[in-house]
Amino acid sequence: MKIQFAELLMNLRFENIFNHKVFPLFLLFVLFISGTHVTAQDKKAKLENDKKQIENEIQYNSKLLDETKKIQKTTLNQLVVLKKQITSRQKLINNINEEILATNRQIDANNEILGNLERDLEKLKNEYAAMIYYAHKNRDTYDRLMFIFSSEDFNQAYKRIKYFQQYSSYRKTQVQLIEQTQDTISSTIEALDKYKNDRISLLRSVETEKQHLNVEKDEHNTTIVQLNKKEKELLATIKDKEKAAKKLQKEIEKIIAEEINLASKKSGTTKSGSYDLTPEELALSTDFQSNKGILPWPLERGIVSGTFGEHPHPVLKNVMTKNNGLDILTDENGKARAVFSGEVTRVMSVPNYNYVIMIRHGEFLSVYSNLSEVFVQKGDKVSTKQELGSIHTDQKEAKTELHFELWQGKTLLNPSLWLAGDN
Predict the structure, then answer these.
(1) Torsions phi, psi of 138, nearest 5?
(2) Where are the alpha helices (DSSP H) in 230-278?
(3) Residue-wise pLDDT tens digits, 370-389
(4) Considering the entire predicted model, what is its pTM?
(5) Which of 12, 20, 118, 386 is 20 to 30 A from 59 (CA-CA)?
(6) Is residue 423 part of a domain?
(7) Is there a contact between 344 and 359 (Cβ–Cβ < 8 Å)?
(8) What does the alpha-carbon distance between residue 247 and residue 254 come to, in Å, rounded to a whole number?
(9) Which of 210, 226, 180, 254 shows the shortest CA–CA distance to 79?
């Protein structure tokens, strides 16, 4: 009796067929490709999202820069915007370089996957060819039947029948694996081509941005040279600003003292150093405190032109400037808005700061200066992000700038520590 086919079946050990090396290896590759694809896509999406935000920054900075160029003279305001533009441009270049690195890593990973898949496909084809060859040599149905009927008992006959079924199933699995591997190779090649095209586009993009950056740096340096020739004018401006800042500070301190005294009289206490808060004011104050670091900005869009504290002058050597809050440049017709809910405690006019609005949030006070028009009045209850007034535009300087301060009782605070990271 011929039993070559039976011997083939026994040698193939079909009971371990799904432990075959190629099958799990293929699955591992499919899982690896899926996993790395998702991770790469997530990173790519984040980089692209960051890139859009930076491009929006650059577009906005360009708009402000164009406004400063409406007048035929070089201003400190122009220098501030140029600095911000250079910073944003460098961020964009760094972002694109990260995209290039990520794309290169993905190209390398796809090349490695492609090589392994092609080797796997070769093995699968060779095994399938060998199987077909032996099946063809042992295609005699009578030989198969005799192999089953020659079993010593029913149990052995059942196992031999299962061998034939598994063999048929295995052949189908091999065909599926070959087709799936070929499909995966095709999609990997397609992805690889896309990544290579993306890399070419990114490399061109980064070169373009570098050219823009060099132009902006040259313009920045030229602006500094021109401003240095205006030393007397700049010093006079600093003195005027210092006088106005002191005047504003005195007015604020005076109003705070009045508010504290008024609150003390209402409660019948003799406190003089801090507010005597009602339960509602205490709750509002606690709520304001809990929002430290996440308060919305006092305008919808803008760039910081002056930070809190003492700083060297951006042009003049050995000259220090002091700022009691934040100066924020915005576009013409910009609106100031409340950083938190509260009550308008004062609307007043201060020289060089135009209209000033003060809003009380329990023991905290937010101050919005340099407004040309106000939309609220003393005693009004305001909500977070409610518009308070139009920011004044200095036509001589082509500058629309809000001055913003924060106070806790009689203590001046650094607004940067209280506002959210981005506006």
Answers:
(1) -120, 50
(2) 231-267
(3) 999 999 999 999 999 999 99
(4) 0.71
(5) 386
(6) no
(7) yes
(8) 11
(9) 226
| 244 shares a domain with 200 | no
Q: What is the DSSP string of 66-122?
A: HHHTTSSS--HHHHHHHHHHHHHHHHHHHHHHHHHHHHHHHHHHHHHHHHHHHHHHH
Strands 303-306 and 393-394: unpaired
Structure tokens at 237: 């401006």
Length of the chain (residues): 423
DSSP β-ladder status, 411-413 and 381-382: unpaired
Residue bearing tokens 């509260």: 342
- 55 strand-pairing partners: none
The Cα–Cα gap between 146 and 144 comes to 5
Select from 228, 259, 280 the last residue of a domain.
228
Question: Contact, 289 vs 413, CB < 8 A?
Answer: no
- 188 lies in the same domain as 298: no
For residues 350 and 297, what is the distance between their CA atoms, to the nearest angstrom?
23
Query: For residue 423, what is the enclosing H or E element?
Result: none
For residue 170, give the nearest of 139, 137, 124, 117 by alpha carbon.
Answer: 124
Burial class (CB in 10 A: 0-12, 13-18, 19+), 136: exposed
If asked whether residues 315 and 214 sit together in one domain, one would say no
Task: Supply the range of the domain harboring residue 362.
Answer: 231-417
Cα(58)–Cα(63) distance, integer angstroms: 9
Rounded-to-integer distance, Cα 296 and Cα 338, Å: 8
Alpha helices by DSSP H, listed for 138-268, are: 141-149, 154-228, 231-267
Q: What pLDDT digit, counting tens, does each position of 281-339 carry?
A: 899 999 999 999 999 999 999 999 999 999 898 888 888 889 999 999 998 889 999 99
> CA–CA separation, 285 vs 362, rounded Å?
4
The answer to whether the CB of 313 falls within 8 A of the CB of 233 is no
Residue pointed to by tokens 């910081």:
304
Both tokens of residue 240? Answer: 């005027």
